Batch of 2 targets.
Target 1
Amino acid sequence: MRPPVRGAGALASASGGRLRSAGMARLGADAARVVEQAHAVARRHRHAEVEPEHLLRVLAAEPDAAAVFTRLAIESVTLAEQLDAHLSTWPASGLYRDARVEPQQSERLRILFRRAGWSSIFSFVRPLTLEQLTLATCGLPSVAPLVLDARAESITAQDVVAHARILAAGRGDDALSVFHVVHVVADQPWMASALRDAGIDRTKLQSALESRLERTTKRPIRLGLPFAAIGNRNVWLGALLRSPSVVSVFSDDVGVPVQAVFRALARGSGAPDDDTFPSGDGSDGAQIEIVFHNDDFTTMPFVVDTLVHAFALSTADAVARMRGVHEHGQMVVATLPARDARKALKNARSHARREHMPLRITWRRASPAEPRTENPEGPAELDPSDS
């Protein structure tokens, strides 16, 4: 059996008023106990301040918090191991030359306590519970990457929404918005890699999202209910990133169009830019082949619409060629004189930028000496790894 636990008042007295000085007199007994243990973790690592990461390390080993981690599909053992490795990289404080030194609660930890208290409308009469403290700690943006990496399964739309709700509760926000969700997605390793390939500073993006959240507290931009029901990651991610408010964050606050993120997700940083156009006026009879390339984010209806409006194909022909692109990875969708090809390319690429689609469109000169196929191996100048 566990020995009797001292409450917040007893702990404050035993630790020189540490908890009371931080305004933590309303901590429940279990919450006060784990906070005291977080101080011990900070002391063991010789850190000058007690941070939320110290608290989360204690919670990861706390039996009474296990149900919360299970509900969130978080492997607490994995989380504890990751936190141990993470905390070991922090520098030790020189203050520990004095054996009497006591780590102080950081500003981040005090903010966490306040937000955890605000997450319940009964917080003014009820002590802060261990569950509230665990949810608020997991919802901090600074610890989100560690929490998400400890998930027991690959993340789905439902997972993202669940973590976004934790983030909202941890911030004390009343409603879930797309900015909470993007905050969670940006912490995913695959998205962090795509942001880097797109030339986006993830810290700048997170700051922009925080600013948007502060401005939309009273009138949040809510997330559509069908989002969480989408199973395919690329489909729900495309719907999320193409929402007008998210597009605005990337273009207005970060200074990079969201199309660049889609391109990085679809083909990484090594693909050549597709901004060249064929030269000549077509008087020499040269013909230009236009090649569409398949990806996981450009929608089929968009491809059909582009073929109809930019290349003047019938709907039936556009659908057939869209299917060819989808099935074979790439396909010649039109063969035109140079002047007409330039105009069609310009219109198609502009349409893709407006709709935030990463559709890759390349061209090559048709060789009159060789028969042309509708499913080429690919333009000669392209790296085969891009197909």
Target 2
Amino acid sequence: MLVSDLGMNQLRCGRRRNARRLLEQACALHETDPRRGPDYVVAANRLARIYLEDGDPASARPVLEKALGHLDLAAHGVDDVAHAATAFNLALVLQAQADPDGARALFEQALALEERELGNDHPELVSTLVEMAGCVEKLGDVVRARGHLLRAHAILSATHGPDAPDLAAVLGALARLHVACGQPDKGRPLLERLLAIRRRELGSQHPDLVVTLNNLAYLAEAAEDVVEARRWRERALALGEQAWGPDHPNLAPTLESLGALLWAGEHWDDCRTVNERLLRIRMAELGPDHPAIALKLQDLAALEARAGQPVRAADLFACALDALERSPVAQRSVVRKILQNLESLSGDGDEDEDGIDIFALLAERARLLDRRMMTAPPMAEA
């Protein structure tokens, strides 16, 4: 396996192109000789992983299929672990090629081989179980996906301890599947463990913790605990502000979620403050004429209408339509959302001093803009 080993040495030295060339040579040397089956299988798996990492599953597939052909010929010194690795890598290829059914069959084959060689509780099974979980989840079987992750969690907890860093990915995915199975309360202690693990690993002020804090808020929302959800969102926001500053675009997802939570609870003043910050962040990032700015302006307008401030609402709706009329990109979906909101507000008695329904007037303006977009030459979508 000298050529294959040289390829891996090149890879470790950062010479990826040389590594790929040498592993291709190794496969060419061994693929026609059944007696060199073990050498070919090792080289093929190494080469296939490079292809996969380079985003080239189409090149990886025939290499691995040939490797499985070697394995199926006869016993030429290839053990179940090597066989399992080949099936596992080919399953990854099929996943990348949007064939989850084919991938699932190969993951199951890999798992059976690993169990036969290593036993049912070996930590080497965890990668296969995690990938199988993702695969069957895509096929819509969240219960089976959760079962695979529960088993991976049990193996890692037994072999590495309940708070090992290796558990992090499993804890997050398992918490999400508990929600998908309608049991968010089971997910919360897992995410709290994950938060503790990541704090020990990264420090208590690391911005990567924002994701876990937001996930805890999501679980609280799924459990209809809005007070707890708000607490987690605000902790995520505070940590993000400390890491990035008060107006950084990275804060936008947390602000969006917090704003939606405040809207649902009819906390209009707090919701206004959050959405005004979002508008400021988006405007600095995208400019004043982007459709996303119009969408945020209409969100603020709808908020003011719900809060009993029709004049402010009308001004913000008008600003949203102004932004869309200036925008170099077309997005009729935003116009239609504004129109839908305006139509729902028309006729509610919100008239100006001359007795004119201001929302009805703005709705007509939105209809004209929608028709103009519909008949205009095609433009780029935002």
